[in-house]
Amino acid sequence: MGRLEGYSTIITGGASGMGRSTAELWLEEGANVVVADLNEQNGNDLVDEMNSKGFQGRIKFVRTDVSCEADIVRVVEAATVAYGKLDVMFNNAGIDGAFGPITEIEADHWDQTFAVTAKGVFLGIKHAARVMKKQEWGGSIINTGSLGSQTAGGGPLVYSSAKAAVLRLTQSAAFELGKWRIRVNAILPGIIYTPLMHRGKPERADVVSRSVQPLPFRGEGKHIAHAALFLASNESEFVSGEYLRVDGGLFAVGPLSHTPMVSPSSKRAGMNFGLTGMEGTMRELVPEQVPTRDD
To answer: Using CA atoms, how far apart are residues 37 and 277, in angstroms rounded to an integer?
Structure first.
């Protein structure tokens, strides 16, 4: 019997990358999975593939914009109607979002980044908790954070700020919801080899694992999936308000500002919507003259 046998679960951003790896593992562990994602093609392809592997009736796809409350309500209803309950909500969806120097970031891009990466988590917690409060066993809520939430240089400025909000939201929600046996935790991935990360250049992940990261192999979606499995299952029944780094020891090295792959760029600015299927924007910047310490 799997560790999530009969569980009803939702994974936002579940059609690709870390979310997809988690959906595959949780199905193998006996869970019923509702995949919530904005990318319909990826979502339908995943359902077809999992059905062909014998998981018919245990995986559903619901097109979801996590920044839209009505969409979150709909996906939570889909899980509860199909499986009669909601045991686990994995708020995994996020985008790289706004990038570039702070003086060049568009306010609208800031809002769009926070709408998906922070507000989306808030809405997921809100509506999962409404269901879980009615269940005597409560439930588990898992949020995807980032190393960028803990140190400068771990990601683009706006993205890191949104992920920092996710951490505080995780702890505050754990405090509020604990009395209903609802656990709220976060996973902080390091450099994980996914399509969103490598964008067709697999060598990007290998640069980090060879040069900075203590463990000499690249992070994979399965590493996040197994961490999420622990936090979803009863094995972590006394764990709440915590965040688990899954980064190959990268954070232990120290400041990440000079780590290959994540150093902020001052050459371009724009908006990256990741694997949502939405078209991003980018503009080249005129190089600024940076003063020396003696200036």
So the answer is: 10
Separation of alpha carbons 139 and 103, rounded Å: 42
| Phi, psi of 44, deg, nearest 5 | -70, -35
Q: Which among 83, 159, 193, 243 is annotated as catalytic? A: 159
- Residue 290 banded pLDDT, cuts 50, 70, 90: low
Rounded CA-CA distance 117/97 in Å is 9
> Quick one: tokens of 276?
């949502």
**What are the tokens at 124?**
């997921």
State the CATH architecture for 8-284.
3-Layer(aba) Sandwich (3.40)
Average pLDDT across the chain, whole number:
89
Are 218 and 206 spatial neighbours (Cβ–Cβ below 8 Å)? yes
pLDDT in tens, 33-86: 999 999 999 999 999 999 999 999 999 999 999 999 999 999 999 999 999 999
The whole-angstrom separation of Cα 120 and Cα 85 is: 21
The secondary structure of residue 118, as a DSSP letter, is I
Question: Does 128 score more than 60 pLDDT?
Answer: yes
Active-site residue, 159 included: yes
Domain extents in the chain: 8-284
Residue 39 has a pLDDT of 96
